[in-house]
Design a protein that fits this description.
CATH class of the largest domain: Alpha Beta
Structural class: alpha/beta
Keywords: Activator, DNA-binding, Transcription, Transcription regulation
Order of helices and strands: HHHEEHEHEHEEEEHEHEEEEH
CATH topology of the largest domain: D-Maltodextrin-Binding Protein, domain 2
CATH superfamily of the largest domain: Periplasmic binding protein-like II
Number of helices: 9
CATH architecture of the largest domain: 3-Layer(aba) Sandwich
GO molecular function: DNA binding
Family: Belongs to the LysR transcriptional regulatory family.
Number of domains: 3
Pfam families: HTH_1, LysR_substrate
InterPro entries: LysR_HTH_N (IPR000847), LysR_subst-bd (IPR005119), WH-like_DNA-bd_sf (IPR036388), WH_DNA-bd_sf (IPR036390)
Strand content: 25-35%
Largest sheet: 9 strands, mixed
Shape: globular
Length: 298
């Protein structure tokens, strides 16, 4: 048994398809299938029920795969410990980001992260919060950049910046030329929102419910860009994170105005496993990101 065999097994559990698992591991399908059979023979148990339509894991297969994930995570931790003492700002770093942060923050930070840490190889993954938290806990990701929520207390966190939410409305709306609107003025309005699962939705709804603002139940968007286009089409109003608003505050058919008293906002943080040995790396990254976002807010 070797670590590569465990990687094949874990990939198969994730993909539930031999060809896809083989592609993920950069080997041929016969190679992966043969090594899994070899592992079964070595352990003396059947790990997988092979059918023509699907890959089904046996109870033994599920238990051994869970342990294999832990072994691989610990092995990676050993490598990270060694790297921390030699070159803390080098090697691979796997970062998860939520969809309402990644596309808007990355263009600002990637060039400077590459400039400050040229030996660091960044791998970026985008998913919703609950998926990212599981991947971080399982050791599949090194850190996350996302909006802070109460359920993240079991992880270590480094605050990055506070991001206001801006009101987006059609350019021909009566408020389109105003510079700001109070949250109370939105009472009775129904805003367009993202679909369930997006933490931005939950945070925006928290502010809206407190102010007597409702949700348009006829439509839920899969992305901020879909929301933006719905606003441009005159279908309603919404709240957008500031980084998602173009620098010139003007998109085709959409106007943006500040909301005050109070100003809706969210805290963006860098999340990591509490005892991660890569904490020095995260500290340095957080400093760079803070400086970038602070300069952009001036």
């Amino acid at each position: 048994m070797n670590l590569r065999d465990l990687e094949y097994l874990v990939a198969l559990s994730q993909e539930r398809h031999f060809r896809k698992a083989a592609e993920k591991c950069f080997v041929s399908q016969p190679t992966l299938s043969g090594q899994v059979r070899k592992l079964e023979e070595e352990l003396g148990v059947l790990l997988i029920e092979r059918t023509s339509r699907s890959v089904l894991f046996t109870p033994a297969g599920n238990a051994i795969t869970a342990q294999a994930k832990r072994i691989l995570a610990e092995t990676k931790e050993l490598r990270d410990i060694a790297r921390t003492f030699t070159e803390p700002m080098s090697g691979e770093l796997h970062i998860g980001l939520i969809p309402t942060v990644g596309p808007y923050l990355l263009p600002h930070i990637i060039p400077l992260l590459k400039q400050h840490f040229p030996e660091l190889q960044l791998y970026l993954y985008e998913a919703q919060t609950h998926t990212l938290l599981k991947q971080l806990a399982d050791g599949e990701l090194d850190c996350l950049i996302l909006a802070q929520l109460d359920e993240m207390e079991g992880f270590g966190s480094l605050p990055l910046y506070n991001e206001p939410m801006i009101l987006a409305l059609p350019s021909d709306h009566a408020w389109a030329r105003r510079k700001q609107v109070t949250l109370s003025e939105l009472k009775g309005e129904k805003l367009l929102m993202l679909e369930d699962g997006h933490c931005l939705r939950d945070q925006a709804m928290g502010f809206c419910f407190a102010a007597g603002i409702g949700e348009d139940q006829h439509f839920k968007a899969t992305s901020l860009e879909t929301l933006r286009n719905m606003v441009a089409a005159g279908s309603g109003l919404t709240l957008m994170p500031k980084l998602a608003v173009s620098p010139h505050q003007k998109d085709a058919g959409v106007s943006y105005i500040q909301v005050v008293d109070p100003e809706p906002s969210r805290a963006i943080t860098l999340l990591h496993r509490t005892h991660s040995v890569r904490r020095p790396c995260f500290n340095e990254m957080a400093k760079v990101i803070k400086n970038i976002t602070m300069s952009g807010q001036r």
